[in-house]
């Protein structure tokens, strides 16, 4: 198929914001799509491989600018200038290609196959000369492209297709294109997408109109799948109502989701965003080898950090750096150890358990895992219909530094990628405080160059005295959307107030007042107030407030006492 046909589809889809119209346009296109062109299914959402595959195009704006400049005979500075005016690099490529083609009048046919071949080479390139090789691959496509092709090629490269197409619309379009009963087929198609994370494999089957055969698409060990997510309720009573009675009540661990795959000697660990983190956690593979029975399995778990000396559980923020860290892994294992809490099993010894009831799956966990605290354990769980017992368990979870509890229907299936009503979470209510920023730390990766975590302080007893009460990194945006504050803006605001610098940490003059919500206050030796906020989240800048107007320590401690008295979670 020609790329031009796909570019025209993108154009048609972006001409309407109405979902039903998009479905109409896309279903007609899918009806016409041949099985040889199945990989177009990936391009529809801006990908070159199935979602479970980690390889991404990953081209920066700067590199795309260079390629556009080369392909259109413009200099990079003019492309950048144009981009700043228009705000969309795709449109810039379209315009420049138009100008060029008027003078040269030549464009070649680009096939989907050629586009995929070149784009798929991009993530494979490494080492010396990578940049120029990448530019050559992109330029080859752009020089042959018509203006509209150039627009969508560019947008695909930088991962910003701007056609307003979501997976759910693709699902409904497949249902409309291939089945009479759209309402009945759409959920089945969704299930197949959730199990495989591979739109083209699903298309292979539905394209032939064979809805029954979708059931043949199974989980595959080693291919990451999306985690099942929970809905939220306010208290245990509502919880029992939602999931039924008796139900399983489990600790809601404050760590990060880890989905574990084993096939023979091969182990893979995936995060919730399908990232493979096996290399970062070699000790977990050791625990699995020693303490979990089974030739092949997929387990769902939460990895929680604990203090190697005191054995106290640590909030997620403390271990989050282990997920990204590729070096000094052995040292990190010792300083930031994790315990794996297994709470579900989705596949065992060659068989998918997704359709088995939770009570059966949870029994199997107990059979196959030998509990080794601070290494690997079954998530703490009770099965009860008694609210008082559930409340005691909830209190214990909070005392053990965990976030709250999960409640689970005993008969429910496992629905990958869905936020379901048969698994719910209960956490303490959030409260507000106004505080001042008195320190910060510069971030790494996507946040490098910006301050990315902020020390918060309340007022002390004496005038002008501020006491540290926690560290905050959530609630702030990476990119500008909906007028929310970004790391960049906050960093710019705080930089002139830096008093002292040490490594990545800075001390900041108490001037910038912000509102935060938090879940709980705890005694803590880590901050000079003697207290720490749990889960502080930025909600707003308070330019209207002076540091003198913020909460004082007494207010915070009063809140702690109130919190002890008034918890209404049961
Ligand atoms: P939150 O910020 O509340 O963790 P979330 O959007 O990350 O929400 P949810 O599915 O809404 O995720 O909440 C459940 C999360 O809690 C799971 O994703 C998982 O990481 C974690 N968790 C901790 N303990 C358990 C448990 N026993 N069973 C299921 N999930 C658990």
Please give a structural write-up.
- It is a single chain.
- It is built from 21 helices and 20 strands.
- The protein is of the alpha+beta class.
- It folds into 3 domains: 46-157, DNA ligase, ATP-dependent, N-terminal domain (DNA ligase i, domain 1), CATH 1.10.3260; 236-426, DNA ligase/mRNA capping enzyme (D-amino Acid Aminotransferase, Chain A, domain 1), CATH 3.30.470; 431-569, Nucleic acid-binding proteins (OB fold (Dihydrolipoamide Acetyltransferase, E2P), Beta Barrel).
- Strands 12, 13, 14, 15, 16, 17 and 20 form a 7-stranded antiparallel beta sheet that branches.
- Helix 4 (61-72) packs across helix 8 (130-144).
- Mean pLDDT is 91; it is low at 564-570.
- Adenosine-5'-triphosphate (ATP) is lined by residues 227, 229-230, 250-253, 257, 302, 343, 379, 406, 425.
- Adenosine-5'-triphosphate binds at residues 227, 229-230, 250-253, 257, 302, 343, 379, 406, 425.
Q: What are the segments in which pLDDT stays under 50 over at least 5 consecutive residues? A: 564-570
Shape: globular
Name every ligand kind in the structure: adenosine-5'-triphosphate
Rg over CA atoms, rounded to whole Å, is 27 Å
Instruction: Kindly estimate the percentage of residues that lie in beta strands according to DSSP.
Output: 15-25%
CATH architecture assignment name of the largest domain:
2-Layer Sandwich
Number of strands: 20
At CATH level 3, the topology of the largest domain is D-amino Acid Aminotransferase, Chain A, domain 1
What does the largest sheet look like?
A: 7 strands, antiparallel
| The top level CATH class name of the largest domain | Alpha Beta
- Count of the domains: 3
Terminal CA distance reads 60 Å
> Could you name the CATH homologous superfamily of the largest domain?
DNA ligase/mRNA capping enzyme
Mean model confidence by pLDDT: 91
Structural class assignment: alpha+beta
Task: Count helical runs.
Answer: 21
Helix content: 25-40%
């Amino acid at each position: 198929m020609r790329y031009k046909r796909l570019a025209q589809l993108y154009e048609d889809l972006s001409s309407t914001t109405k979902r039903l119209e998009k479905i109409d346009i896309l279903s007609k296109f899918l009806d016409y799509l041949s099985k040889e062109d199945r990989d177009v299914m990936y391009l529809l959402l801006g990908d070159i491989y199935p979602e479970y595959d980690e390889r991404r195009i990953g081209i920066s704006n700067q590199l795309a600018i260079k390629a556009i400049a080369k392909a259109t005979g413009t200099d990079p500075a003019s492309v950048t200038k144009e981009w700043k005016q228009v705000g969309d690099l795709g449109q810039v490529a379209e315009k420049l290609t138009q100008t060029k083609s008027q003078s040269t009048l030549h464009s070649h046919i680009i096939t989907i196959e050629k586009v995929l071949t070149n784009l798929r080479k991009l993530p494979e390139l490494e080492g010396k000369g990578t940049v120029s090789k990448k530019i050559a691959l992109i330029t080859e496509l752009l020089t042959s492209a018509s203006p509209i092709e150039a627009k969508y090629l560019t947008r695909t490269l930088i991962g910003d297709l701007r056609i307003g197409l979501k997976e759910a619309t693709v699902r409904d379009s497949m249902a409309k294109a291939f089945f009479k009963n759209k309402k009945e087929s759409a959920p089945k198609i969704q299930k197949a997408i959730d199990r495989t994370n591979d739109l083209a494999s699903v298309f292979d089957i539905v394209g032939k109109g064979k809805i029954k055969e979708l059931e043949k698409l199974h989980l595959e060990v080693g291919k990451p799948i999306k985690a099942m997510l929970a809905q939220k309720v306010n208290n245990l009573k509502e919880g029992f109502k939602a999931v039924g009675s008796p139900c399983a009540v489990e600790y809601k661990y404050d760590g990060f989701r880890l989905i574990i795959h084993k096939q023979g000697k091969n182990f893979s660990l995936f995060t919730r965003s399908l990232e493979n983190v096996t290399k970062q956690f070699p000790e977990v593979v050791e625990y699995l080898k020693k303490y979990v029975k089974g030739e092949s399995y997929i387990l769902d778990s939460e990895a929680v950090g604990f203090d190697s000396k005191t054995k106290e559980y640590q909030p997620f923020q403390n271990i989050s750096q282990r997920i990204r860290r590729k070096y000094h892994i052995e040292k990190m294992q010792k300083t930031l150890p994790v315990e794996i809490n297994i709470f579900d099993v989705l596949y065992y010894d060659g068989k998918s358990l997704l359709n088995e009831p939770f009570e059966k799956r949870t029994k199997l966990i107990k059979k196959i895992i030998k509990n080794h605290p601070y290494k690997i354990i079954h998530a703490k769980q009770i099965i009860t219909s008694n609210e008082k017992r559930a409340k005691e368990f909830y209190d214990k979870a909070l005392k053990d530094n965990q976030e709250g509890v999960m409640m689970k229907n005993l008969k429910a299936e496992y629905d990958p990628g869905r936020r379901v009503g048969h698994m719910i979470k209960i956490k303490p209510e959030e409260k507000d405080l106004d505080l001042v920023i008195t320190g910060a730390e510069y971030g790494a990766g996507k946040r490098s160059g910006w301050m990315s975590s902020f020390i918060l302080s309340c007022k002390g007893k004496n005038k002008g005295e501020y006491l540290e009460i926690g560290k905050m990194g959530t609630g702030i945006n990476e990119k500008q959307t909906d007028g929310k504050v970004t790391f960049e803006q906050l960093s710019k605001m705080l930089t002139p107030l830096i008093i002292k610098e040490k490594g990545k940490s800075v001390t900041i003059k108490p001037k910038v007042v912000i509102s935060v919500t938090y879940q709980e206050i705890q005694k803590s030796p880590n901050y000079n107030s003697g207290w720490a906020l749990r889960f502080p989240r930025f909600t707003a800048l308070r330019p209207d407030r002076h540091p003198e107007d913020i909460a004082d320590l007494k207010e915070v401690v009063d809140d702690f006492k109130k919190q002890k008295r008034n918890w209404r979670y049961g």
